[in-house]
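I am writing to request your help with a piece of structural work I have in hand. The matter concerns a single protein, recorded as an amino acid sequence and a row of backbone structure tokens. Could you please explain, in whatever detail you think fit, how the structure tokens follow from the sequence? Thank you for your consideration; the sequence and its tokens are set out here:
>
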Amino acid sequence: MNTQPVDVVLIGGGIMSATLGTLLKELQPDWRIEVYERLGELAQESSNPWNNAGTGHAALCELNYMPEAADGSLTADKAVSINEQFQISRQLWAHLVTIGALPEPTNFINSTPHMTFVHGKANVDYLRRRHAVLADQPLFAGMEFSDDAETIGRWTPLLTKKRKAGAKIAATRIESGTDVDFGALTRYMFDNLVTQGVGIHLNTQVTGLKKQTDATWRVKLLNHVGQARTTVNARFVFVGAGGGGLALLQQSGIPEVEGFGGFPISGQFLRTTNPKLVAQHQAKVYGKAAVGAPPMSVPHLDTRVVDGEMSLLFGPYAGFSPKFLKTSTWFDLPFSIRLHNIGPMLAVARHNFDLMKYLIGEVFASRTAKLKALQEFVPTAKMEDWELITAGQRVQVMKKDAAKGGVLQMGTEVITSSDGSLAGLLGASPGASTAAPIMVDLLARCFPEQIEGWKPRIRAMIPSYGTKLNADPAAAAASLAATAAALNLTNPVPAAV
């Protein structure tokens, strides 16, 4: 048993732990940091490139960030907020490339236009109005709209080839989008941390967390190779274990986790590496979600670049599994139920009947039904060109709500202990794309005594820290151009509007 406390323990070998560890090492290089990952490799759950869409969520194409109000009005506030967050991530990655902490950027990020594609008169009208609202937003400068099939076909031929003549369709396109391989990015960040003395412990599962009288946390560990059990004491613990985070936070006993539950959603994608198809589609194209579908199940046809190879990914086809992780057990959901969260969980079930109906339908969807969904995007699609792959598990947050008893939150939630010595992340989308702003916010919450002294260094890494880029057209254009140059992104960045 190691009784000498380490400064920081990071639980989970994904993008969140990699980002927090990177920030802390930049800010406090003398701190001792240890990382524990239960699997034999890093970035194998939510950060794995085939377990997520790698969209680089910036609200450029995702319609769920701009829903219509009851009166039909649209506001850009949520979309702008998500984009602001993604710019923070881009700035951090650009900084790490500039100082040599990350390798050639094309190994993890590549220029890929972001598009939205809709069918039907009502949806075309909605997309036109959405474009009008976003057109004057500096972070969305250069977004194009078209309801002309020939124009859309020039943008990406697969969407219009052999589509029924006269069909009501529309699309938006913005060239400054990206495709991100978060698995590669995570591994590169951890490689850099190892050179700075950070310990990475694979095949090591955290089995318990207990607060000690000296205010440290005793972290119980089980090494799956040899079954050795050890402990380590830590002054600060971050639970970045994806779907496994809820169980660990519950084990910690902090009252702040009371009332929280997890709703797991599984998924599948269709993937093709057929060079003839890949050559006809260079974009990430998002559609509109089906009634009752969670935001992470919005259909999209994506260009992916993983390990240098280009492919197309379509989906996701959502489903239900009680697992909280792709590699965990079927008992995750029932074992997460407590007296304090059963009420909110039942309330969520009661108020989300459409979601339950949708997921059940997806579970039993035939191969023919999956092909039909793909053909709404690619009319010429043939199943023999595509393979079905299993995506990662996503665990949406369920929590107490004064009005409804419980709500299903489509986003991320950071939970911290009252003294800031323990923090954990729950939830999913936009997740990895906003890892940097989430972790920067966590620093302020968990290290109030240090944050003022850290701010100059944070601004050196993230120049827009503490400001809003979208409020300053010149600053927005300059930031987009600077990060594009540092990250070797090839798509043009519009000047200030």
